[in-house]
Amino acid sequence: MLLSLTNAPRDYAWGSKTLLAALEGRVPAELPEAEVWFGDHAGDPADLPDGRTLDAVTGGELPFLLKLLAAEDPLSIQVHPTKAQAVEGFAREADLAADAPGRNYRDDNHKPELIVPLSERFEALCGLRELAASRRLLAELRSSTEESAGLSRLSALLDGEKDPLRAALQWALAEATPAEVADVIDAVHGGVAAEFAQTLVAIREIAARNPGDPGVIVALLMNFVVLRRGEAVFLRAGLLHAYVSGLGVEIMAASDNVLRGGLTPKHIDVAELLTIVDTTPGDVEIIRPDPGLTVQRFPVPVDDFALSRVVLSGEDVVVDVQAPAMVLATSGDVRVIGADALALPVPVGTAVFADPAESTLVLSGVGEVFVAEPGSH
């Protein structure tokens, strides 16, 4: 059985009035549109044509959540727990109300995720930069601006011998005075670092949008990544990240567990964040598509989900799926044909759900779709 799926965009403040509207060929929205959820997560299950929501069909058991994401402003810096950490944390907070402001764990699941840009440029902060590189960046800022207490303290922490990045995060989020935070932000605005010119441009914009936020210091220690359309990055448990701007398709394990590390007015539990975060520095791998493939599958090291991008040029493409699966249209005029041989249109910005009875889907038309399904390893 195939079912059409729609949902209303979520109007988070960091969303865009134009990105989703342009994708779907409609006028700009009056309010920011940040995410459209295609899943059965209790927070916002997708809508069915008969007025029900998808959880009525699946029982809320889908292992993944598929989204369209549109960012005009940076999201909060965040990290997600491992499965074991989520189980322990959710049990520990069992006595808290579901909507308690201080609650960290909304469920007992992990939340690995993959983002694939639809915009020609997608900016993100992904993981902590190699320590030697961050030391060079701080050294250049110190040499090109007036020395200050905040900048000196951050440099001293990065020169430490025992987990210096964890110490720097602890200081930035829990110990630095507003004056020290301002010192570092002033250096970002006024300093010069030729090796990190593109990064500084991005951090200055983030700082301008988040005045006085200690998360700017955290962002300064992270890898600034520019993804192109069709590329992807996988974000594992424990990895600090924040999407900065752009439009993309996102898929994740079905969870709402988020520990925040700045660039937000929301609750930040620094102690719990430091328990969850992996401070191992290094670059994050960018998954680049093979232009010769009609079906591009993005490799991920988890069983919760798998995602493929399919480019349709007029000839039918047959895709074997591990249902329950979804087909999300992101351009063109496409249709999905299931076991009953009926062609179901998939307007851009909507999806089709394939229940477990479907094992082979025929995709027809001209355009681009993403196929989401449970993973297998």
From TrEMBL:
The keyword Metal-binding applies. GO terms for molecular function: mannose-6-phosphate isomerase activity; zinc ion binding. The keyword Ubl conjugation does not apply. The active site is at R260. Residues 2-130 form the Phosphomannose isomerase type I catalytic domain. GO terms for biological process: carbohydrate metabolic process; GDP-mannose biosynthetic process. Gene3D superfamilies: Jelly Rolls, Phosphomannose Isomerase, domain 2. Zn(2+) binds at Q78, H80, E113, H241. Keywords: Isomerase, Metal-binding, Zinc. It catalyses: D-mannose 6-phosphate = D-fructose 6-phosphate. InterPro entries: Man6P_Isoase-1 (IPR001250), Mannose-6-P_Isomerase (IPR016305), Pmannose_isomerase-type1_CS (IPR018050), PMI_typeI_cat (IPR046457), RmlC-like_jellyroll (IPR014710), RmlC_Cupin_sf (IPR011051). It comes from the Bacteria. Its EC number is 5.3.1.8. This is mannose-6-phosphate isomerase. It comes from Microbacterium keratanolyticum. The gene is manA.
